Structures are given as C-alpha cells and as structure tokens.
Amino acid sequence: MSLPQNFLWGGATAANQFEGGYTEGGKGLSTADVITAGSHTLARQITYTTKEGVECAQPIMPFKDLPDGSKCGVQKGQYYPSHEGIDFYHHYKEDIALFAEMGFKCFRLSINWARLFPMGDEKEPNEEGLKFYDNVFDELRKYNIEPVVTISHYETPLELVNQYGGWLDRRCIDFFVNYCNTLFTRYKGKVKYWMTFNEINMMGFLPFFAGGVTKSNPQAQAQAVHHQFIASAKAVKLGHQIDPENQIGLMIAYGATYGLTCKPEDQALAMEDTRKRHFYSDVMSRGYYPAYKIKEYERLGVKVSMEAGDEELLKEGCVDYLAFSYYTSHCVTSEEGEAIGGNFSMGVKNPYIKASDWGWQIDGIGLRIALNALWERYQKPLFIVENGLGAVDKVEEDGSIQDDYRIAYLKEHIEEMDKAVNQDGVELMGYTPWGCIDLVSAGTGEMKKRYGFIYVDRDDNGNGSLARSRKKSFHWYQQVIESNGANLKDIQL
C-alpha cells in the first residue's frame, strides 16, 4: 500500500479560524469578525446594528434575513474567536517548522481578503498585508512545502456586505477578480495551487458564511452563487493567463448520502440530496447549468439574472481539479428517523456506524464511495483538502496527548483513500487533514472541538498561553508521510 511519489501530503487551515491579527497590518473586518463564539452551532450569532441604531444579534443557524438597512459590526461585550484565532499571524515561523517536522509536502491555507483589500472594493492592495503572505510563502518554500491557497474562505470583507449586500451584488465579481489579479501577479512562482471559494455549496445552506449574503431565500442564494460561478470562471482564465503553471480548482463540502432503506422513495431522496452538492461542481467542472437544476428553479420560481457572455464564461473558465471536504456520511428517508448532522449537512442516523462526540458519523468507506462518484462523474484530478475528527483532547500530567481516536479515524479514511487510488483507479492529487494544528471550529466557534496534530493552549473563552505541543497523532502522521502512506501502524512513544 502506497500512493504516487508526487502525492501531496499535508494539512489544512483557514485564515479566519487560526490567523488572528484581525486589525493588524492594515487589515479590515470580514464576515468572520462579527460572528461570536458558541457552545454549539445554534449558539453562534451574527452581530449587527439596525438602521435605528439598535445593536442586535441573531443565530447563524437557522439563518434568517437581516433587517433591511442593518449593518454588521463588532459590538462591545461580545467574544469573537476569529479576532485572535491561534495567532498564526505572530507564530507562523514556529508553526511552519512543526509542519516541516511532520514532513508536509503541502500546506493548505487561505488568504484573508480583507487583509489585502480592507474594504473589499479598493483598486490598490494593502502592501503590508501582501508582505505578510510573502513571508509565509517564503517560509513554506524554505522547507519545500507547496502552498495550497484558498482565495475566499468564509471571510468576505465586511464592507462588501454592508455597502453592497455581499455576493448578491454583481459588482463583487469585479472586486474579486481584481483581488485575484493581485494574488496571481504578486505570488507568481511562489504559489501554483489555488481554489477559488471554500465549500461554495454552503451558499445554499449558510449564505452569510459563503458570501456575506444577508437574505436566505432561494432567489437570493441562486443569484449570489451565480455571481460566484462567474467570478471563479474569470479567475481561472486570468490565473492561466498570468501563469500557465497555475492549477486552479473548485472546493465543495461533500459526503456520501445513503437511502436509509432499499425503499425506492429513500433511494430517490438520496439521489436528490447528492444533486444538491453536484450542482456546484457540475457548473464549475462542466461549464453549464445541469437540466435538473434548471427544472428545480422553474418549480421554485427562481429566475437567475445573467448578462450576455455569462454562459460562454462558464464554459471557458472550468476548473483544473476538484477539491472537497469529507468528514461524514448520512442517510435520508421518506419516513421517520433520528436526525443527525455534520459539517452543515443534515440527515438521519445510520445504525451501522459510530459517531464522534459532536454526532458526526464516522464512515471511512463513504470516502471511497465519494472519490469514485466524483472521479467517474468528472474525470478530473481530485484533492481531499479537509478530513478529520473533532474531539476533546486531554493533556496528561506528563504533557502528552494520547489521541488514539484521531489516529483510528484517519487510518480508516487513508485506507479507503488508498483503495480508491490503487484498486479503483481514481486520480488523487493529495490529502490535507483539517485543522492540522488546533484552531477555532467554523461551526461552533469552540476550541475544545480539536482536530489537530499540534495542540494549542487555548480555551473557548480565549484564555491560554497559545503554546504549541505535539500530540501522539503528530508522530503517527509523520510516519505515514515518511512511508508515503504505506505505514499506518500504531506507534509507541
């Protein structure tokens, strides 16, 4: 058992969850900077001020329209975990050295758009922000670690929300393309792997996360994601023009969906649920809206406004590869079942598999199924850019962290990943487990929900020294990378 010699082993993060320095170096506010912490997803809130000047907050889930005329902003007395994260902004050299010690071939990170364009709509970028990422990329290159960069990862500049309504406004396309032009030009030769939008399919579930959209109806979500499709297509074309070496991919949240029973109605529901994800990759990989989505829009009365040339752009700007997150699977049924969720997807409990502390079902075989489904559908290289187990880690008296449960989860998924490649013929570029260093949970805003190989001394209230330490899984993953996936055995420290 082993993977191709050029396989990209690494880890994944996002600026809004680990970078910190939220007002340093000329950075502006982003959508993440106005979302509070919470003990679970439903407890997280967006803070805003009404046009009458009243400060308010509302839950991020289920998302409801913000009042017309309201402005999102930071309020006193609230805790916003993105403001400091785990302070990669000041610890990047230390953290990258730890990634190198594990043997990373690549590192997935995101650019914080508001660090480069504080308002989002400026013509010229913030030089101090550009220099920070220069330093990060140079540090990665020092260790021969390839940067894998998400251009927009749940952090639309806040002023684009307050002044334009986020991605609901077509002008955001030009702002984004200007931002991309800056990235592709400045970091030519330093970065060649890009993804335009993180989990773009979240626009249909959490529009504020996905694009700063404060309306939650199907019409608004359809229009906003169309603007992102066009922006992505333009970015792909531009990226190839500036540097033919650039590889630019899409990124979706993905997971296997099963009918709970062999009842035909359950299987039909599974088909429909899977289409909710495939729609986004269909458009970005194939270059056109699929018939099933056009029919759905007709039934809903949704009319997507397109400009002349949009259809041609979608065809011309298809992505080079398909990246996705995979954490869990779920079942659907036409009858009653025990509701569960995971990575913002909902379904019913599968009685044949176990679940994490947060109720996310653990299904390594589902990853193999997902890889085959995507490869057979698109015949484009795949990249698993998020996978992992969120768990509560205990620091022992000797300072060690025995996270065997995390090792077991990753081992199960890597084994199925290997089968997809070596038995099924799937073309897989790489594997970057999520939160390779502990960071703030996107869904809950917690620190106690940890994914990392590296422990960070930080609690849910922002307390702690931020000291880094190696978990047992750190040494195990080091062994996995060194053997190119051949050695998944347990280790004794």
UniProtKB/TrEMBL annotation:
It comes from the Bacteria. GO terms for molecular function: beta-glucosidase activity. Keywords: Glycosidase, Hydrolase. The active site is at residue 386. One of its GO terms (biological process) is carbohydrate catabolic process. The keyword Hydrolase applies. GO terms for cellular component: cytosol. PROSITE patterns: GLYCOSYL_HYDROL_F1_1, GLYCOSYL_HYDROL_F1_2. Belongs to the glycosyl hydrolase 1 family. This is 6-phospho-beta-glucosidase.
